[in-house]
Amino acid sequence: MFNCHITGLAVARSLAAHGIEVIALDPDPRGLGQASKAVVERHKCPNPLEDERGFVQYLLDNAKRWEGAVLFPTNDEWVMAVARYRSQLEACYRIPFSELSVIEAVLDKRRLYADAHHLRIPIPKTFTLNDPKATSREIRYPAIVKPAEQRRFYDRFGVKVFRAENAAELVRFAREAADLACVAQEIVDVPAGGFYSYCSYVAPDGEVRGAFVGRKLEQYPEGFGTGCLVVGEQVSEIVERGSAILKAFGYHGISEVEFIWDPSRKEHLLLDVNPRVWKWIGLPIASGVDLPWLAYSEAIGQPARADEPREGLRWIYERDYALLAQSRPLFPATGEVVSAVWDPDDPGPFAQLILNEGPSGKYYCAC
User: Fold this and answer.
1) Would the pLDDT of 11 be above 80?
2) 151 exposure class (CB count in 10 Å sphere: 0-12, 13-18, 19+)
3) Domain with CATH 3.40.50.720 in the chain
4) Which CATH superfamily does the domain covering 195-357 fall into?
5) Distance between CA atoms of residues 208 and 210, nearest Å
6) CA 214, CA 44: separation in Å to the nearest integer?
7) Residue 55 has what pLDDT?
8) Which contiguous run of DSSP H or E holds residue 83?
């Protein structure tokens, strides 16, 4: 497993529960998953964002030691590194997702939205940035600029998307991000709890072996952050559209297809496809759709299928939810809740979370 933080922790716990030995590779020792008892080995490896060839060579150098291991990247850059060097790596390792051409096509927002249009899957009003000045005159503000490869965009600009308040800002930013294959998009006024994801494992023959729909109730930071409270809520329209877009690209593996509810159009709009595991994957796992296990079992030649998911479980990332609660009332984290980090049977990751936050001042009590 690569990049063993919150997402990696959920994957490690899933696989360990099936008796699988999990090895964590990460350039940063502070990843929460590395503190879990679900991980049997922890190793520091090169960061593919900084040294992609060095990272791949590290895997090749350890091929005899870990021969036959199933690779689980948890972020786009790790997925891309494995996909780019697939021909070398698959001689030693098992890779449970599509080849590079499919990954690149799915991540390219321009191709994704074009295919969605052909499939009659609605999307937010979207523009290319081939001619930024022309787009700046047509689009409604405020608007956002979205990248094909999110991590490189985030590392350069410090945000997941860029919000342009006017034409001048859009043109300036489009020039700064010209090498990152971006699109511009009009902002949809999404109501609270209006973010949905179709989560699945698709086998190489195209069969959907497990599927789940989650509804993101809270995200941190607000606006364009990541989920910190998500509930299982199966929506047939999202299942149909999510599976259709994956089929159109011929994608196989674990993925998250993101949608938003547009109250003005009264329909769900396609936003993104993430060809990998993601932050709240612990929710479908706990709901009976154990996507990492489905991918692993397929990779070792013992395919499995998930049952229908349980409805109504909630997943919470404790840190972000608590920080968000300081500013306003939130959707409640009540009922049966799955915690991203805390597990009384595996407290190490929560201890690491506290250590990562650093000292915030000592509380003195004379009692």
Assistant:
1) yes
2) middle
3) 6-104
4) ATP-grasp fold, B domain (3.30.470.20)
5) 6
6) 33
7) 97
8) helix 76-84
